[in-house]
Amino acid sequence: MNMKHNIFALFVTLTLVGNGVGLKYRVCKLACDEMGLDKCSKLCRTTKGDAFIENSCWKDCSSCAVQSNAATVLREYIQYSNFDQIVSGHDGAEGPVFTKDGTFYMTALHDGQILTVDLQNKLASVFVEPIVGGFVGMPVGLQCDPENNIWVADARLGLLKVTPGGTLRQVATMDINNEISQGFNDLIFDYHGTLWISAPLGPIAPHNLTFSYEDPFGSVYCYNDATEELIKLTTGFLWPNGIAVQHDVDGTPKKLIFGESFNKNAPLWSYDIVGPCQIKNKQLWGNLPVNIISDGMDFDKEGNLIVAGYDGFLHVFGPNGGAPICRIKCPFTEASNVHFKPGTNELYITQDSSQGVWKMQWRAKGMEQYCDLGQI
After folding, report:
1. Chain centroid to CA 72: how far?
2. Contact, 136 vs 206, CB < 8 A?
3. Residue 261 and residue 284: Cα distance in Å, rounded?
4. Residue 325 has what pLDDT?
């Protein structure tokens, strides 16, 4: 009799817990059930009234989404594949990029290295260590051009260009006003071949390294390869960081978008692009949550902008900006940049806390990059 009673009690207990009757799970289970996330419901918890899919849920739902109206939008953004760590231990991991031949590169800015990454075997090796005039570089952002060269935004050396064979040259040290270039962070080609660059550092070497964390001298530059001119377009920002170009349906560059990392309001600014290296009409395009440090960004094929955040989330904005339409929880903090593998929904994420790069499956393919046009 005792045995039967104990078995019955155990059955009841497991049923109650499984159905989320416990205070810890009940609200979350109801939300998960409503969204059809049955596999996740027993492992979820709730935070501030929002459905929050916890790390322990990743075996079934690898990413997490948090927002005020989660019950209506969470299902669309839950990813059903795990984050996969590719490499780690590279100080200041940044600048993920694929070249036209399918090779993946990243930077280790504090190690002064541009790395080649073997994605299949999960190994990284040094491709280039930028040095100019005896000054060691701090490579941050990378972009590929149609000739398979890599363009480098370097915090100490400014704008660099590396050939497929590894030959490096410093492209420009002065702007068109004969002022020394600031140190660079991120960069992006538009579809017309104009290169847009965020510049949160002070003057490049031989000047001492200075930062626009508190003094808003951060700027945005443009390089016109046709005229070989470096142009400072706008200034007055607290660490401009991450940069993207939004295009019209016909491929015409439409908006320049970038973050301001150390502005506590976490803005994403935009300017209308009116020609090569020409902008006007500064506007607030979007906002991350207050006090979140924004970093690198990339568009998907549906026009959504994915922004890496140091809070350990990927903040996803719709084509019109505003507030994030969702946030994807990462298994790490300090996400520093994002980049899609061409023609796929594979999103590669660099991050500082484990000094490496991760891969995840996004719900849409990435937007074409300049070097990919006509190739996908």
Report:
1. 25
2. no
3. 14
4. 87
* Three-state DSSP class for residue 157: coil
Euclidean distance between CA atoms 319 and 304, whole angstroms: 5
Summarize the confidence of residues 241-268 as an average pLDDT.
98
Q: Which of 163, 273, 283, 161 is nearest to 225 (CA)?
A: 161
Question: Between 26-34 and 70-77, two packed helices, what is the crossing angle to 10 degrees?
Answer: 60
Chain centroid to Cα 335, Å, comes to: 7
- Distance between CA atoms of 40 and 260, rounded to whole angstroms? 36
DSSP line for 266-281: -EEEEEEEEETTEEEE
Non-local CB neighbours of 369 within 8 Å, separated by 6+ positions: 143, 144, 189, 342
Total number of residues shown for the chain: 376
- Is the predicted pLDDT of residue 230 greater than 90, yes or no? yes
3-state secondary structure of 26: helix
Q: Residue 190 is encoded by which pair of tokens?
A: 């538009």
DSSP states of 68-111 as a string?
Answer: TTHHHHHHHH---S--EEEE---TTEEEEEE-TTS-EEEEEGGG
Q: Is the pLDDT confidence value at 151 over 90? A: yes
Hunting for tokens 């590929």 — which residue is that? 144
Closest by CA position to 105, among listed 337, 360, 330, 315: 337
CATH superfamily of 84-372: TolB, C-terminal domain (2.120.10.30)
> Which pair of structure tokens corresponds to residue 253?
């560059």
pLDDT in tens, 80-131: 336 899 999 999 999 999 999 999 999 999 999 999 999 999 999 999 999 9
pLDDT: which is higher, 5 or 291: 291
Dist. CA 16–CA 222, nearest whole Å: 61
- pLDDT, residue 18, reads 43
Please list the helix, strand and coil fractions of the chain in percent, rounded to the nearest 5, in that order. Answer: 10, 45, 45
For CATH 2.120.10.30, the residue range(s) in the chain are 84-372
pTM above 0.85, yes or no: no
Q: What is the Cα 104 distance to its own chain's centre? A: 16
Q: What is the pLDDT averaged over residues 242-259?
A: 98
CA-based R_g, the chain, Å: 23
Q: What is the per-residue pLDDT for 80?
A: 33
